[in-house]
# Entry
Amino acid sequence: MTEEKKTEQKPIILSGIQPSGELMIGHYLGALKSWVSLQYEYDCLFMLVDMHAITVRQNPAELRKRCYDFVALYVACGIDPEESTIFIQSHVPSHAELAWVLNCYTYMGELNRMTQFKDKSKKHHTNINAGLFTYPILMAADILLYQADLVPVGADQKQHLELTREIAGRFNEAYGETFKVPEPYIPPSGARIMSLQDPTSKMSKSDPNPKSYISLLDNLDEARNKIKRAVTDSEATVAYDESRPGLANLIRIYNGITGEPIEEIVSKYEGKGYAEFKTDLGEVVVDFLRPIQEKYKAIREDKKVLEGIIQKGAEEAIKRSRRTVSKVYKKVGFVPPIR
Ligand code: ATP
Ligand code: LTN
# Structure
């Protein structure tokens, strides 16, 4: 059996993260952790969505540098570049090409309902550009190009996935089976990691207060301190209770990193105070970050290896995505290029 046939038999996973800030534990627990654990059962494509990132102003030099940091971090977190395809969205022209076509099959009313657009418009009120509005269409293109079966993301992306399914279904109905209709995969415990400073809002890499998140590249003492200073309530006991969102969030982080069930974590701290729990969680976080940072440093310094991963990923993604674009162009009635 050829190599290509073998991979084509596995169901396909596609996911991506915007290189618009530092990768942090929210990304790990919401997305990367599932990527790592699913990569051997699925044919996986993991992107850096730099085209999505420019919907918010980026410093060009930093964006470029961050793309290399991200590739190294994907690998340091356990993505095996021999097994999975890691690529940069802007290296693959099909994303913009399919996004344009899908623009014509998506309604303004649908985009108007997207909560991420509403949130980001508030945050970036001086730059509410058209790309921010049509962002979910580019995301739909990312996914549908590769005929993905499963898309592992955090809970905040569920609405975008539903829209992707809607667009795929609409196109299939008009032109016959063209796209696989994908399913979201939202991890049970890390679906929505909250800010350490305001546990009612999502932990976000673009939060101006770096104390609100733990970057995968944080200095280890700094990471310990962020946990110690995380906002919690004034009660004395450790219990899992959604009405105590600060503590519940820390317990979920503990559970997400160690895999220990929530009930066991809670019973371990019965009769003990917050201080002990936070100190131990600080150590759990540091023990988790240390090997990632060590691996990251080694890979990040080897530009040749990094470029090899990026180039191989681009070649594979270009080849696969072209098939879908050709099919779509034919179906909508575009004249094939004269060769
Ligand atoms: P922003 O910079 O606006 O915060 P973002 O972090 O929401 O952007 P991405 O960086 O592209 O957006 O998110 C990448 C992946 O990480 C997505 O699957 C998203 O659902 C997941 N993710 C992001 N933040 C969290 C979080 N706090 N908890 C769980 N998953 C998250
Ligand atoms: N929209 C996502 C990032 C993203 C993505 C994708 C995720 C862009 N394209 C394709 C999964 C699959 C976000 O803002 N977190």
Q: What stands out?
A: Residues 237 and 273 are 6 Å apart (CA to CA).
